[in-house]
Structures are given as C-alpha cells and as structure tokens.
C-alpha cells in the first residue's frame, strides 16, 4: 500500500478556520493577526516546547472570554470551500489503493467536517483536540479580567517588539496563575514537530519509513514534516507554499487546482523518480499549474518559486494567505 499525508488548510481547503472563528469577536481579526506574527516569532526563535501553529492555543483565552463555543467552530467550518481538484484527487488516490491521511493543526471540529466532505474519516485525521466547554468551567472572574487586560494591550501597543515582550509575560507567567495553568499542555496543537511525530506514526503503522511516503503542505506548520520526508528521500510537495515551507520541499506545485499531485504520487508508487519527473515537467507547466523541481535548488531559484507561489496563494486562499 502507498501512503500520502496532506495538510488540510491550504492544500485541501482554503479556509483558515481559526482565523475566521476569531473574527467572530470584536477586533478578532486584529487579535489573530497579531498572535499569528507572535507565533512565527516564537517558532523561529526556537522556544522550548513551542511549535509552529500554536496560534490555535494562543487564541483560546479570547474565544472563551467572548463566549465562542464549539458549535461556532462547526458553523464556520460548514462554509469552508474545497480546493479545486482535491475531492477528485483523493477519490482517485483511494481507488488506486492509496492510504490517504490528513495531518492538520486545525481544531477537530473543523478537520473532521472537511475531512468527511473529502472522503477521509476521523481515524485518518491527526488534528488538534479542543474542549472549550471544559476549559470555560475553570475560569474565574479574575481570570477573565486578566485576559481582558491583555486584549486591550494587543489593540493598543503599536510595535511588535514591545508587543511580543508583553505577550511573553502573559502566556508564560500570568496565564499560568489562572484556571488554565499551562495553556500549551491543555491545548496540544498538531504543528511542527508534532506533525512529524504523526507522520512517523503513520509510517510505522505500515512498516514503512518516512522516505516511502508522500507529504503535501504549504506553510510554517508543515516545514518540519516536508523536510523530514525530503531528507529521507521521499516525495515532499509544497502546494502554493509560503517562504517558510518552500525551502523544505523537493517538488513545488503552484496553481488553482491540486489535481497534478496525482501524477507525482503515481510515479512514486510505480518506483519512478517523482523528483526527476518534476524536473522534466518544469518546462511543460510554467503557468497554472506551475511545477518546479527544488532538489539542489539555489537561493535564487527558491526566491523565484516563493514569488510565484505568493500569487497563487493569494488567489486560492484570499486573506488567509497573509498568515504564516
């Protein structure tokens, strides 16, 4: 059996569910975008036990304070679109005997709903568990006041350096004294190294190595997963990727339709070199879709690919394209 692992938000569905859920609250878009930049900062500085995508933990105090419920996540998720070609791609992969998995930072309420629309069941989805109601019961009035204060600071502090210092104090000191305790232990987001762990578990369940898998991602939460597969000589495809993900793939695919992934997956399944195929297809596909072989790519080529993907990322994902 052949195995492929997809990120959800980006390659399969353009919606950033957490962003849209946070935008239900007043100034929620500003709060989320600030915390998304803070997430990138923490991930890139290598803070211990922090993973890219932990934005989905960072926003939880604000969701609770503003009365957001799990039903709101599901309602927003019900409006999610599917990337062109994704449903047919997964159906054809499964028909051809592929075991299709989704590894996503998304809350389970969103990942399971979109997964069902794509024909991928919960048992093949690794995602972030979120119990909002359980967490809500633990908050006191003093806890809520503490969260309200940091919310005001987010809306009023102008520069990121000052903001990030203030957020450090809140998340790593003040919040631990509330009913949350350690937020990052309570909300374990499946991003970064945790995606790698999920992928390795999937590979082990098939008595395979990561190098025998195909992985598809697009953002900062995927770079470790893509890099793990690429370095093990597997097929790591970045689809409409950003500057964090593109350098860690060996195949870059940009476009409005993800269906071309099938060609690379089937080449891999038949024992052919999918990376060599990408090099062959570079000249054939220069527009939509656009194919680039990233094996051995120099800095100039990486930058060119990032610029090309930026256009399609905006076209497919809209406002979510600006998030890490």
User: What is the CATH class of the largest domain?
Assistant: Alpha Beta
**Count of strand segments:** 7
Q: What is the general shape? A: globular
How do the helices and strands follow one another from N- to C-terminus? EHHHHHHEHEHHHHHEHEEHHEH
| Biggest sheet layout | 7 strands, mixed
Strand content: 5-15%
Strands in their spatial order, largest beta sheet: 3-2-1-4-5-6-7
Q: Any idea what the radius of gyration is? A: 20 Å
- Indicate the CATH topology of the largest domain: Rossmann fold
> Could you give me the name of the CATH homologous superfamily of the largest domain?
HAD superfamily/HAD-like
Percent of residues in helices:
40-55%
Description:
- There is one protein chain.
- This protein has two domains: 2-15 and 82-127 and 190-322, Rossmann fold; 28-75 and 130-186, AF1437-like domain superfamily (AF1437-like domain fold, Orthogonal Bundle), CATH 1.10.3870.
- With 324 residues, the chain is of the alpha/beta class.
- The model has no long low-confidence stretch (mean pLDDT 95).
- 50% of the residues lie in helices and 11% in strands.
- The chain has a seven-stranded mixed β-sheet, with helices on both faces.
Quick summary:
With 324 residues, the chain is of the alpha/beta class. The chain contains 16 helices and seven strands.
Relevant terms:
324 residues; alpha/beta; Rossmann fold; seven-stranded mixed sheet; 16 helices
Secondary structure blueprint with pairings:
Blueprint: E1 2-6, H1 17-22, H2 28-45, H3 55-58, H4 60-65, H5 70-77, H6 86-95, E2 98-107, H7 108-118, E3 125-128, H8 132-136, H9 141-156, H10 160-174, H11 183-186, H12 193-205, E4 214-217, H13 223-231, E5 235-239, E6 251-254, H14 261-269, H15 274-281, E7 290-293, H16 299-317
Parallel strand pairs: 1-2, 1-4, 2-3, 4-5, 5-6
Antiparallel strand pairs: 6-7
Helix pairs in contact: 5-7, 9-10, 14-15
